[in-house]
Amino acid sequence: MDLQQIASFVVRFQLAAIEMETGKKQWRIKVTHVQEDRETLFESMEDAFMFMKEIAEDV
């Protein structure tokens, strides 16, 4: 196993909407995997984290 492997991500949050009744914010989350220059959009932090975890485990 190579201990020098790196997985870098840029994570951007953009407010997409606010529910009027509850005030709950809906986010658009863009994750960029730097090494592959690959961008993927998500609606939840959990999904974004799972994406990053899968890539990091494959490095």
Model description:
With 59 residues, the protein is an alpha+beta fold. The protein has one domain. The chain is 24% helix and 41% strand. It contains one helix and three strands; from the N terminus they run βββα. It has one helix at 45-58; strands at 9-18, 25-33, 38-42. The chain has a three-stranded antiparallel beta sheet with strand order 1-2-3, covered by helices on one side. A hairpin with a 4-residue loop joins strand 2 (25-33) and strand 3. The radius of gyration is 14 Å and the shape is elongated. The relative contact order is 0.24.
| Shape call | elongated
Q: Kindly name the structural category.
A: alpha+beta
How many helices does DSSP assign? 1
Low-confidence stretches: none
Average pLDDT over all residues: 93
Give the count of structural domains: 1
Strand content: 35-45%
Largest sheet, in brief, is: 3 strands, antiparallel
Question: Which secondary structure elements does this structure contain, and how are they paired or packed?
Answer:
Elements: E1 9-18, E2 25-33, E3 38-42, H1 45-58
Antiparallel strand pairs: 1-2, 2-3
